[in-house]
Amino acid sequence: MTVISEVPSPFCGIGTDDLTIKVDGVTLAVLENGCAVNTPAFELPITDTSARVDGKEVSLDVAVAKAAALLKNTSLPVFGGCATDVNGMRALLALADRSGAVVDNINFTGARNNFLALQDSGWINTTLAEVKNRCDLLLVVGTDVEAFAPRFFERYLWNPESMFVADTSQRQVIYLGKAPSGSASTSPNGQTALVHTCSNEDLPAVVSVLRALLKGQPIRAQSVGGIAIADLQSIADKLKAAKYSVVTWAAGALAYAHAELTVQMVCEMVKEINNMNTRSAGLPLAGKEGDQTANQVCGWTTGYPARTRFSRGYPEYDPFLNDSNVLLQSGEADALLWVHAFNAKSVPPVTNLPSIVVGRSGMVFTKEPDVFIPVGTPGIDHAGHAYRMDNVVAIRLKKLRDSGLPSTADVLNAIEQALGEAQHAN
Amino acid sequence: MLIKLTGGTVYDPASGVDGVQQDIYIQHGQIINKPTAEFKVDKEYDLTGKVVMSGAIDMHTHIGGGKGNIARTLLPEDHRADPVYRSDITRSGCGHAMPSTFVTGYRYAEMGYTAGFEPAVLPINARQAHMEMGDIPILDKGGYVMLGSDDYLLRMLTAKKDQKAINDYVAWTIHSAKAIGVKVVNPGGINAFKFNQRKLDLDEQNSHYGVTPRDILQVLATAVKELGVPHPLHVHGCNLGVPGNVNTTLDTIQGIGGLPMHLTHIQFHSYGTEGDLKFSSGAAQIAEAINKNKNITIDVGQILFGQTVTASGDSMRQHANSKLASPNKFVCMDIECDAGCGVVPFKYKDQNFVNALQWAIGLETFLLVDDPWRIFLTTDHPNGAPFTSYPHLIRLLMDRSFRNDMLATIHPEAQKMTTLASIEREYTLQEIAIMTRAGAAKLIGLKDRGGLSAGNWADITVYTNDADRQKMFTKPDYVFKDGELVVVDGKVVHTKWGTTHVVRPDFDPSVEKGLKDYFDRYLTMKLGNFKISDDEITENGRGSISVHPVRAVS
């Protein structure tokens, strides 16, 4: 039995790297600094140690050969999930390039709200250490931050010391849209967040009015989405008065049509505050289970985020047409490779197509895939790299135990090699 | 395997060889002397009449790191115009302004380049820089780690820590980030932007720390020198792009007091305020200062006309330039109490007065600086233009009539504001070889690259001599990387992985005491998780690390 400290987590997206974990054989127990997201993700026991083909246990070699055979004569295989570490994504993209596949990260439909805004007009953003040391006002748009990342406030807002904020407990937190589900946003001295709720449907209008007020535009209405204009004016005044305001949202939480326009509204508002003789920055929450990792690695490998197809021999990005769920439902896809090394509950959509799952041990399927290969989890079973929500910081994941499970990269590289040999044999 | 390159005309400035017919022998990836005992040549290439140089080295090119990937993500429309198909031996990807990593490697190699150095490695983003460069095939690579706007250094300066303490911190950072040099970008300005300062002159104080850019340049240039790091402090100066910044640049040169200093993309820092449009060339003054001050080296950061994207650590200046974005979108980031970045798409137009004059200023600089060992051929890829425009740039330098033909097409007011037409100089092949090979290797401190004498790694490029220098440098006959033939007739025929070049200056390990406390109190990562280990570069079987010596420290 060993105890490992300063363990980084790939699960919560906010780069917590202070966990202390007890390792007893292959059993993990989070001793310190766990949370509702990280603790169960680390502690999940290993139940699958062997690959399966048609539900029967086989050797890894047999499963790899079968997977390659299933991919060999496909026209448009879809690679869903795409939730793994950097080396896993490297291997996944090499295999996709070889097999002419569509690559689609599991969280992309949410992330699309950000990408559409980014690619249309851009943004001014910040990272977690800047929040920790500079943020004097946090505006949360349409998101329950602590449900997303339970330790966000403890680590980055209520930190006892900060280089540039004299008393961190004086920081203001304002929620617009959703209310917080707990009290993590209450400051250590008991100051609660200011909360102005509205429905998702009204959020675009509420954010628009806030931006208009910041620019000094006259508003005739008395309220919008149930929020008094006077309250929004007060938020606008606070944003102008703050030295370094931070506006945060989770793209996936804005689950309504054309939420990209809300993201764009927020980002343009932040840009404008920076032209009002003060500083402000956006902070998109993400980074869960490899989503930023997928987009980063796909970004440098292809030029595009992780909803990209290789079916014509070169990468083509389309945030709508390359949606794996759409391709599976429309019948365009003719095979599914599902990769999810982090979460046993993230199983693939049910399909009658030939299907291969490279997944975390413990997955329970409604319909057994043709091939299931359990793989190690990055940061538990093998070392690796994962990106945090703020996209700049890649964390070095540690190997905590010897489970004998292969890494995603091991498996996908083997499939690519087998497929290459099969293609050349033709 | 013994390879013989027979009868080529060799340009090897590192050995003082200027266009001499010589044979070259290669064994185990390295160049060897002609064996004295009896030997058998396994493979011979007849290079009679061909031009032979070592593989070219781009000493300043943004090929790895977060801002480059932001630039890629920002510009899907640019990629769509230049799709790159996969082949049996190469991966698919995208090209033009900010190519995908694999395509970066192929296209550099296809122009005869065998190494590229990322000049802006943020310590906190160094992992990403190395991971991206780890996916660039064929090329060797390395990075200069960015300091100067990090709060740790500024706190040290405010606390009046001595030079020794700063040296230890700089050396520790070089180790942690796996770098081969140190860069400073808008010294302290990126930090000042976070405090809402929008400009920072050389002697202007950071509003929080009271530290000036001049202070920062002094301690960092001193640290680099005292640590024995071969590459001098790599400086992206104050006031990038601001008319009148020529004075800032001249003051920066004078102010460094003889310490070795490299001024990067100096074209963007050579602007006067004369003329009706209050924008003029400062190239002559800059060149005069460079010629006089032997401690200074520069690269140009030439602009060439067309669409590109500017990606810089200089969040302060990039934010100011964002109103010129074309297409109209940009990203700025404040990053981890470490640095920042700004990504602004840009379209340089020959009929735009300012752009046209920028073009002329870069060329004036190339042609007015006497010593090719102290000036380097860059476009600050992708900021002035994508690296794929180098053959065109070489022709502009080597061919006066071509240059003057081009000059005659740019904005007429810009033509009046440049002395370019009267400059007769044409670069020679040897001078090109110095700028892009021997000089670059010497500047970076690569002990066994950039030359063709025995003991060097066999990075070799073979061209067909052609009066059209653009054509000549676009399509080498052969490129060898570590003795392996990777390019034939300007096309990749074989791929391999290059190495990562680093230096490892000594430091007092007790430097980590203060750093650990700082990391625990203010940063978001544990110190132990911050440092990059060698296996992060080597573990996937692609990478290796080559450590270069530091100079003996007196």
Give a description of the structure.
The complex is a heterodimer of chains A (426) and B (554). Chain A is α/β, with parallel strands linked by helices and 426 residues long. Chain A has 13 helices and 22 strands. Chain A has a 9-stranded mixed β-sheet with strand order 5-4-20-19-18-6-7-16-17, sandwiched between helices. Chain B has a single domain, classed as TIM Barrel, CATH 3.20.20. Chain B contains 20 helices and 26 strands. In chain B, the strands form 5 sheets. In chain B, strands 6, 9, 10, 11, 12, 13, 16, 20, 25 and 26 form a 10-stranded parallel β-sheet that branches. In chain B, strands 1, 2, 3, 4, 5, 21, 22, 23 and 24 form a 9-stranded mixed β-sheet that branches. The radius of gyration of chain B is 22 Å and the shape is globular. The chains are: A alpha/beta (426), B alpha/beta (554). The interface between A and B is large, with 67 and 65 residues.
